[in-house]
């Protein structure tokens, strides 16, 4: 069974994340969406809230599960018996960041492969950070995330 891990902070889940998850679910027998609990970011949502949002986002996908994780991503991947990590690429600076992470992960866990999926054109610009900034400033962000995520974001920015 080919299992892939799609790790991230997912604060919160956007349509771009969900697109990568759905495409990964077609490529792999099983996909684990790993919600990193302590990224070096100012989070809007708790780990539990982000996991719950992820579970709601993928509830119709029978081969996708959402789990929180701590520590090194490669150690989580090993515990979960994952042989492939999936990442989404939007723009050039994503490539540079992903390349650096891939090189250190290759050193730490050479048995784990990296697969990068290019973001669909309609999501090339989309990031959780941009979406949260639009929300904080009162802009319309409802089409960037599922309705249940939009409601949760609106509740946080009130």
UniProtKB/TrEMBL annotation:
**Residue limits of the Cytidyltransferase-like domain?**
5-133
Q: Where in the cell is it found?
A: Cytoplasm
Q: Catalyses which reaction?
A: (R)-4'-phosphopantetheine + ATP + H(+) = 3'-dephospho-CoA + diphosphate
One Pfam family in the UniProt entry: CTP_transf_like
Q: Which residues form a coiled coil?
A: none
- Requisite cofactors: Mg(2+)
GO CC list: cytoplasm
User: Where are the residues marked Transition state stabilizer as a site?
Assistant: 17
Q: Which GO terms describe its biological process?
A: coenzyme A biosynthetic process
- Which residues of this UniProt protein bind substrate? 9, 41, 73, 87
Residues where ATP binds: 9-10, 17, 88-90, 98, 123-129
UniProt GO molecular function = ATP binding; pantetheine-phosphate adenylyltransferase activity
Keywords annotated in UniProt:
ATP-binding, Coenzyme A biosynthesis, Cytoplasm, Magnesium, Nucleotide-binding, Nucleotidyltransferase, Transferase
Q: What is its EC number?
A: 2.7.7.3
* Assembly, per entry: Homohexamer.
Family as reported in the entry's similarity comment: Belongs to the bacterial CoaD family.
Q: What is this protein called?
A: Phosphopantetheine adenylyltransferase
From which organism does this entry originate?
A: Dehalogenimonas sp. 4OHTPN
Provide the gene name from the record. Answer: coaD
């Amino acid at each position: 069974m080919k299992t892939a891990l799609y790790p991230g902070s997912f604060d919160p889940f956007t349509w771009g994340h969900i697109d990568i998850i759905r495409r990964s679910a077609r490529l792999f027998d099983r996909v684990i969406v790993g919600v990193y609990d302590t990224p070096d970011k100012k989070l809007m949502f708790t780990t539990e809230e982000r996991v719950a949002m992820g579970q709601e986002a993928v509830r119709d996908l029978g081969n996708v599960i959402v789990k929180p994780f701590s520590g090194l991503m490669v150690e989580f991947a090993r515990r979960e018996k994952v042989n492939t990590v999936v990442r989404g690429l939007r723009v050039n600076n994503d490539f540079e960041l992903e390349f650096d992470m891939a090189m250190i992960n290759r050193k730490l866990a050479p048995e784990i492969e990296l697969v990068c999926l290019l973001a669909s054109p309609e999501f090339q610009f989309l990031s959780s950070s941009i979406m949260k900034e639009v929300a904080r400033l009162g802009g319309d962000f409802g089409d960037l995330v599922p309705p249940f995520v939009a409601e949760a974001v609106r509740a946080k920015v009130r």
